[in-house]
């Protein structure tokens, strides 16, 4: 039985009528740029994220870039983040004029180690970017005080974590709620995916929200008048319509991912060679990815591929070892926890529409490789 890593066709079939009707309403009005659906989606995502404001943009990468651009970085300004994440996190820092400063991760959650963050702050530090990797929030109760103590921004890269929650001081907090700004991605593979690129920024700060809104529209709040030089980073109205049609299903899809994750974990938890992902007890994980650690990882992937089972390696080379960041002076051994993770991780199919027979096929194949 073939099992894809992600089956977007199956998801589309489940919401086809709703999505096509929403798209056709936009087409019939010919309101493709900053139409009403964009504003409606912003309001809905703000509610979901427990944020006062949400600002749509063209991609998750642009959301990071715009958030960093609003800091008015100068040469030498440092942004602390993780080397174990998608390239856009550090690429946006570079493109906004800052210098990435990497620190290691926690071995169990794959998220930033707050102690390492605290040790890396210098007078040049302007912000921390905390990535909520694979759908699990970082330890915000530890990171927020670090940012506040030093008067620096805390950006939540929640590209993989829309709707994820963490219990902080006894109350549930949502990804994007506690930081200076939270950034979201609607790339098709995300729990809430568009039919192309799309992004969002959320914040509690009205002044910051206004500036982010201007920055995405060439730096102006009204047409042909520009307060500063910004960007063309509008969320397409068609994408907003697709996302609005999908949004009522998000909680159910994330719950299905969590059920699949629980079944995998039950199958692997006692195995000596297969290490399931650990969920911090404070977190409600949404499992954008289900990522295990294994020995002989590349051989396992080849074994799965031969059986028609999809998988992916997120991420095979940590950012501090990427050739484009060689000038930062890091080397192999600089961040051993991240480097070990990159050598061991592999993500298995966990999409909502995964059937029980499909999942059993994946489980059997993994256990066959590690008898």
Q: What is this structure's SSE topology?
A:
Elements: H1 8-29, H2 36-48, E1 53-57, H3 60-69, E2 78-81, H4 88-95, E3 99-102, H5 114-120, E4 125-131, H6 140-150, E5 153-157, E6 165-168, E7 171-174, E8 181-185, E9 199-203, H7 206-215, H8 237-246, H9 250-268, E10 283-284, E11 290-293, H10 297-306, H11 336-344, E12 345-348, H12 356-369
Parallel strand pairs: 2-3, 2-4, 4-5, 5-8
Antiparallel strand pairs: 1-9, 6-7, 6-10, 8-9, 11-12
Helix pairs in contact: 1-8, 2-8, 3-4
What does it look like?
- This protein is α/β, with parallel strands linked by helices.
- The protein folds into two domains: 8-247, Aspartate Aminotransferase, domain 2; 249-369, Aspartate Aminotransferase, domain 1 (Alpha-Beta Complex).
- The protein has twelve helices and twelve strands.
- It has helices at 8-29, 36-48, 60-69, 88-95, 114-120, 140-150, 206-215, 237-246, 250-268, 297-306, 336-344, 356-369; strands spanning 53-57, 78-81, 99-102, 125-131, 153-157, 165-168, 171-174, 181-185, 199-203, 283-284, 290-293, 345-348.
- Strand 2, helix 4 and strand 3 form a beta-alpha-beta unit.
- Helix 2 (36-48) crosses helix 8 (237-246).
- The longest helix is centred in the N-terminal third of the chain and has 22 residues, at 8-29.
- The two termini are 20 Å apart.
């Amino acid at each position: 039985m073939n099992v894809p890593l992600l089956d977007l066709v199956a998801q589309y079939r489940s919401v086809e009528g709703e999505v096509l009707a929403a798209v056709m309403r936009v087409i019939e009005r010919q309101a493709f740029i900053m139409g009403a659906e964009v504003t409606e989606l912003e309001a809905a995502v703000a509610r979901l994220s427990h944020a006062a404001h949400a600002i749509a943009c063209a991609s998750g990468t642009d959301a990071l870039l715009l958030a960093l651009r609003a800091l008015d970085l100068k040469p030498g300004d440092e942004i602390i983040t993780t080397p174990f994440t998608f390239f856009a996190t550090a690429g946006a820092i570079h493109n906004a004029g800052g210098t990435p400063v990497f620190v290691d991760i926690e071995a169990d959650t794959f998220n930033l180690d707050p102690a390492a963050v605290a040790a890396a702050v210098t007078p040049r530090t302007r912000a921390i970017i905390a990535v909520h990797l694979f759908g699990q929030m970082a330890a915000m109760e530890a990171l927020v005080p670090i940012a506040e103590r030093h008067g620096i921004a805390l950006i939540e890269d929640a590209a993989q974590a829309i709707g994820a929650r963490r219990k902080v001081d006894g109350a549930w907090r949502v990804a994007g709620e506690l930081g200076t700004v939270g950034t979201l991605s609607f790339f098709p593979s995300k729990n809430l995916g568009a039919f192309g690129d799309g992004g969002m920024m959320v914040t509690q700060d009205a002044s910051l929200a206004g500036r982010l809104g201007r920055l995405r529209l060439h730096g102006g709040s009204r047409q042909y008048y520009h307060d500063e030089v910004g960007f063309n980073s509008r969320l397409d109205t068609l994408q907003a319509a697709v996302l609005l049609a999908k949004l009522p299903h998000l909680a159910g899809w994330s719950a299905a991912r969590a059920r699949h994750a629980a079944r995998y974990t039950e199958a692997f938890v006692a195995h000596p060679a297969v290490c399931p992902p650990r969920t911090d007890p404070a977190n409600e994980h949404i499992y954008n990815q289900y990522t295990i650690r294994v020995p002989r990882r590349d051989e396992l992937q080849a074994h799965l591929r031969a059986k028609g089972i999809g998988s992916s390696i997120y991420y095979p080379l940590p950012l501090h070892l990427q050739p484009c960041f060689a000038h930062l002076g890091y080397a192999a051994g600089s961040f051993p926890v991240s480097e070990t993770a990159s050598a061991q991780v592999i993500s298995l199919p966990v999409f909502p529409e995964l059937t029980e027979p499909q999942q059993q096929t994946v489980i059997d194949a993994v256990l066959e490789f590690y008898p």
